[in-house]
Design a protein that fits this description.
The protein has 203 residues and is of the alpha+beta class. A hairpin with a 2-residue loop joins β1 and β2. α1 packs antiparallel against α2. The chain starts with 7 loop residues before the first helix and ends with a helix.
C-alpha cells in the first residue's frame, strides 16, 4: 500500500477516488454477469453443433460404407467463401457466422454413382456445421479472455482499491482529528498562559 499524505488535499483525493471506484464497480459487475451468461449460452451452442456433426457423420458413414470405391470429393465440392461479419457482446468485438458459399461441380450422371448428389449435400451440411462451430468457439475464446480481465478488475476494486481508499481516509481523518485536538489544546494552554501573565501584571 502506497503511503498516503496526511493532508486535507490528500483526504479529498482519497474520497474522490473512493467515489469513482464505487461508481465504476457495479458497471464491471454487470459486465461480468453478462459475459458469464453469454459464455454459458455459447457452451450450449458448441455442444449442440458437435452433436449435429456427430449425427450427420454417423448418417454419412451408414450409407457411404455400402460403396467400396473411394470418391475424390475435392473434384465436386470446394469452399469458395466463408461469410463472417463482426458483432459486439458487452463491448467485445466477435465474429458472427453468416454462411458458406460453395463451388460445386455437378457430377456427370453417367460417370458417377447415383448417391454422389446425396454425398455432396451431406458434405455441404457437414462443412457448414464445422465452420459455424469454429466461429462459435472463437466467440467463446474472446469472451472468456474478456471475462478473465473483467474478473481481475472486479477483484482489484473489491479487494484492493476500495478497502485501500477507505483505510487511507480513516488514517488521514484520525491524523487531522489529532492535529485539530492538539491545536485546540495548544490554543487553550497559550490562552491560559496569557491570562496568567495578565493577572500577574495586574497584581
Amino acid at each position: 500500500m502506497a503511503k498516503v499524505k496526511l493532508t486535507k488535499n490528500a483526504l479529498k483525493a482519497e474520497r474522490d477516488a473512493l467515489k469513482r471506484f464505487q461508481r465504476y464497480l457495479p458497471t464491471l459487475q454487470l459486465k461480468k454477469q453478462q459475459l458469464q451468461m453469454e459464455i454459458r449460452g455459447l457452451q450450449q451452442r458448441v455442444e449442440s453443433k458437435r452433436k449435429e456433426e456427430a449425427a450427420l457423420l454417423e448418417d454419412i458413414e451408414n450409407w457411404i460404407k455400402l460403396f467400396a470405391e473411394p470418391v475424390e470429393w475435392a473434384k465436386y465440392i470446394k469452399v469458395k467463401d466463408i461469410r463472417v461479419s463482426e458483432g459486439n457482446i458487452a463491448g467485445v468485438a466477435i465474429p458472427m457466422f453468416e454462411g458458406v458459399d460453395f463451388d460445386i461441380k455437378v457430377p456427370d450422371l453417367f460417370d458417377t454413382p447415383v448417391w454422389i448428389d446425396s454425398g455432396i449435400k451431406a458434405l455441404e451440411n457437414l462443412i457448414s456445421l464445422r465452420l459455424e462451430r469454429r466461429v462459435i468457439e472463437e466467440q467463446f475464446r474472446l469472451l472468456s479472455e474478456e471475462l478473465r480481465t473483467t474478473n481481475q478488475r472486479v477483484n482489484l476494486f473489491e479487494k484492493v482499491k476500495i478497502p485501500e481508499a477507505k483505510e487511507n481516509i480513516r488514517v488521514v481523518r484520525i491524523f487531522l482529528g489529532d492535529q485539530q485536538t492538539a491545536g485546540v489544546a495548544r490554543s487553550k494552554i497559550a490562552k491560559n498562559k496569557t491570562v496568567a501573565k495578565n493577572a500577574a501584571e495586574v497584581a
